[in-house]
Amino acid sequence: MEKRVTFVLTASPYSGEAAATVLRLASAVLDAGHRPAIFATADGAYGFVKGQTPAGVFDVGAAAEAFLTRGGEVHL
Questions:
Q1: pLDDT confidence of residue 54
Q2: Does residue 75 contact residue 41 with C-beta atoms inside 8 Å?
Q3: Distance (Å, rounded) from C-alpha 63 to C-alpha 30?
């Protein structure tokens, strides 16, 4: 049975590991055949701005784009 899993992201994309963790967990839920969604609010929405080029850290923008391409949902 397909499950719906929603994550709430409020942390800015590069201030810690919260955004990277949410994207990794949501991708794992998608891999398991379920329907993940990320609700990004406050600073969490900045992880979904295109054109970011972080150096030396997990690329939240690229992970978010890959998540969306694979069928994940993001609500801002």
A1: 87
A2: no
A3: 13
